[in-house]
Amino acid sequence: MKDIKSFNEEELKTEMKSIGEPAFRAGQIFSWLHEKKVNSFEEMTNLSKDLRNKLSENYEITALSEVRSLKSTDGTVKFLYKLKDGQVIESVLMSYKHGYSICVSSQVGCRMGCMFCASTIDGLVRNLTPSEILEQVYEAERSCNVSISNIVIMGSGEPMDNYDNVVKFIRLISDEKGKNLSVRNITLSTCGLVPGIRRLAEEGLPVTLALSLHAPEDELRKTIMPVAKAFSVKEILEACDYFFEKTSRRVTFEYSMIDGVNDSAERAEQLAQLIKGKNCHVNLIPVNKIKERNFVKSGDNNVAKFKNILEKYRINVTIRRSMGTDIDAACGQLRRSFMEESN
Ligand code: SAH
To answer: How many other CB atoms sit within 10 Å of the CB of residue 14?
Structure first.
């Protein structure tokens, strides 16, 4: 069975040809799947019964089944979804003044090994398909009856390690015949896979690139992010400059602050020297506690001091507002606690 929701309209035309149908059916089906977001062929009422039967014999429509959802007092909703093969993934819907934003996962698990992250503890299980990433958005919209305007690809997984499917997802969700979400409202977060950053710069997709830096130099970075052994901070920053050159999109540097590890005034100075003068933005994130590791988040004073130092160099800095902390909203935690219960 082919995954019909992962096809763009052009590919659907080829599919229609292969089953002896006229090309214009592709547009109708695309609109049912991505604009009206139906999850069965029966609902595609402008198609004949015969065609609907033919479709259901050859294609499947990816759907997620909700295992659990948790609502935070701040309006954040965390979803745990089961995939067709029994794997579970999580997504987080956040409500802001300017609208709804969703954090989606791009892989089941992750193989990047960042020390402070819960998603990576059991390694990578598999990549998500474009339709499985899409459905996280569609299903949240259906179940909460909202329209999502912003997407952050910051859930479990490393998007650059599932490059083709993630880019396909971005093209599908922004397709004007589908959900038509602005590419500018999508943020892709990466731990710094340099070839992926350079490739993305060439796609003609003005997404916001968020770079998980977390340390201003290689030696420290290697102790918390194994990926730092493969790519140096220098190479990463050059790739980010290239991304900015190509897209004119300001890059965000994410810096998770871990008490006594990367949060000293010296580290702030080092970071400032590294990025001052760049058209960028720094997001400071007091690290979320995960029970498998001993990292402690930096105290408010340290975070404020760190921020002041960066601001002295005229760098744009925000402190990430922590949302949904009462519902295990830190990366991968809900999935892990669910799996532990099921074992
Ligand atoms: N793999 C991608 C995207 C997923 S992680 C990346 O590395 O960017 C999204 C962000 O959350 C990254 O900046 C990641 O470093 C950060 N993160 C992971 N676990 C965290 C934790 N326990 N506390 C704070 N930030 C965390």
So the answer is: 11
